[in-house]
Specification:
With about 170 residues, the protein is an alpha/beta fold. The chain has one domain: Rossmann fold, CATH 3.40.50.2020. Helices cover about 35% and strands about 35% of the residues. It contains six helices and nine strands. The chain has a five-stranded parallel sheet, sandwiched between helices. Strands 1-2 form a two-stranded antiparallel sheet. Helix 4 links the parallel strand 3 and strand 4. The longest helix has 15 residues. It starts with a helix and ends with a strand. Bound molecules: adenosine monophosphate. Adenosine monophosphate binds next to strand 2, strand 7 and helix 5.
């Protein structure tokens, strides 16, 4: 079952930089059975959580966020790297291993109190998802949780985000 999904994820050493082992999820996407399995498992986890909006993180997060939102009967919102969103935005900066990155969200993405689920493919240190969560909270929406396909558990992202809020299909 999910072990087939685990086996399909490809380790790419030294990408995008020396020392990083990149978890390539594209073999899941290209296999119709595995892709369906992953989306169905995400839907099973969040079906009862009254999610009103799913927020996908650029760019691989979009791939999982969109079918999840559709299946949950929720709306979809995207957070993007700077300069990509056409409307007025709010921004959050977060630390990378070297330097800093910024995420943007449309300023009218959420209604106050709206129940929001943050989605990305891989949880590493948690900095990216945490910044997305801050954007959600700043708009007065309610953060239901964080959903990932892969958790690189040795990097401690789950503890950083709050383990009770985090779900990942697979841990490495
Ligand atoms: P982080 O903010 O450290 O949790 O990094 C998470 C973001 O970087 C996600 O958008 C991931 O897609 C990407 N990412 C970080 N590390 C990896 C990795 N080893 N393999 C694949 N994606 C990664």
């Amino acid at each position: 079952m999910l072990e087939d999904v685990r086996a399909a994820i490809r380790d790419v050493p030294d990408f995008p930089r020396p020392g990083i082992v990149f978890k390539d999820i594209t073999p899941i996407l290209s296999d119709p059975r595995l892709f369906r399995q992953v989306i169905d498992a995400l839907v099973d986890r969040w079906r009862g959580a009254r999610v009103e909006k799913v927020i996908g993180i650029e760019s691989r997060g979009f791939v999982f966020a969109a079918p999840l939102a559709y299946a949950l009967g929720a709306g979809l919102t995207i957070v993007r790297k700077p300069g990509k969103l056409p409307w007025r935005t709010i921004k959050e900066a977060y630390a990378l291993e070297y330097g800093e990155a910024v995420l943007e969200l449309h300023e009218d993405a959420f209604q106050p109190g709206e129940r929001v689920l943050v989605v990305d493919d891989v949880l590493a240190t948690g900095g990216t998802a945490e910044a997305a969560g801050r954007l959600v909270s700043r708009q007065g929406a309610q953060l239901v949780g964080y959903s990932f396909v892969v958790d690189l558990a040795f990097l401690g992202g789950s503890a950083r985000l709050g383990a009770d809020k985090v779900h990942a299909l697979l841990r490495f």
